Amino acid sequence: MTKLVHNVQKKQHRERSQPQSRKKWGFLEKKKDYKLRADNYHKKQAQLKIFKEKSKKHNEDEYYHAMTKRHTDKNGVLMTDRGNEVLDNDEVLLLKTQDTNYLNTLRTNELSKIKKSNNNLLNFVESNSKHTIFVNSKEEQTNFNPVEYFNTDEKLINKKENRLRVNQLIGYEEDGKDSNTEVDGLRKFKAAVNIHAIEDEDGDLVSESDDDELIDVYEARRKRKQDEKKLKELKLLQKRMEREQKLLSLTNKLELQKNLMKKGEKKKSINKNGKTVFKWKNVRKR
């Protein structure tokens, strides 16, 4: 007799999830988790049963020479020899000397990088130098116009480096042969203004026809990028200095170990800073 099967969707019985109020008590174990844990437990119990049977059948009077050479640790794990050769004192000293030389090489490399980073940071430091202009008379001093003298824009008069001239500012949008970095930067910035909507510091859109506004926004962005580069260089310098100090500390530890391995009567003491200090007895040289 055939069995009647209803073609309806049966209710799916899913395992309940972890209640929010019981998360503090730990993970809610499902059946699959329990099965893995139980299988692992029974596997270990079966192995222990085999070991117990072997130990019962073992002859207590049996003896072999390896019994005197092998030993176990506090956890009962058998300690065996890895086959490493025991080095004498001179060989260990030689290896420590090689390690010290390697650390000194790394430290010298880090010191050169630190010096280079310090030189790079000098480029970001604003100079306190003054540009002195000599004139022939008091009248020229009174009527002196720095904008006219330097042939630049009034907003760039306080800029001490790469100060653009008027002819460069007028022709920066043209494809000239001027290879000045500032001119190239202004030219690229204006091209970006033509394509994208660029805002100034106040959030207003920059007009491509207003050269003064373009110069102001360009200078503000250039200064912000310069500050970001300076911060990045400072972080890199800090990491290199920390690495150099770690290498110096490791080198000092190796040097101390080398000196302790050498002959000579020495005394161990602790100074007022809590550091361990070794003092060797002075030996008269003949």
Features:
U3 small nucleolar RNA-associated protein 11, two-stranded antiparallel ribbon, rRNA processing, two-stranded antiparallel sheet, flat, nucleus, coiled coil, SSU_processome_Utp11, mainly alpha, single chain, 286 residues
Overall strand count? 4
**Could you list the spans in which at least 5 consecutive residues all have pLDDT below 50?**
172-180, 192-200
Structural class, from secondary structure content?
mainly alpha
Rg value = 40 Å
End-to-end distance: 117 Å
Q: Secondary-structure element order, as H and E?
A: HHEEHHHHHHEE
Count of runs of 4 or more consecutive helical residues: 8
Q: Tell me the β content.
A: under 5%
Q: What portion of residues is helical?
A: 40-55%
Q: What's the main sheet like?
A: 2 strands, antiparallel
Mean pLDDT: 77
**Which word captures the global form?**
flat
Give the strand order, joined by hyphens, for the main sheet: 1-2
Please write out the topology.
Elements: H1 31-57, H2 66-69, E1 71-72, E2 78-79, H3 89-122, H4 138-142, H5 146-150, H6 166-170, H7 181-195, H8 211-261, E3 266-270, E4 276-280
Helix pairs in contact: 3-8
Coiled coil: 215-244
Family: Belongs to the UTP11 family.
InterPro entries: SSU_processome_Utp11
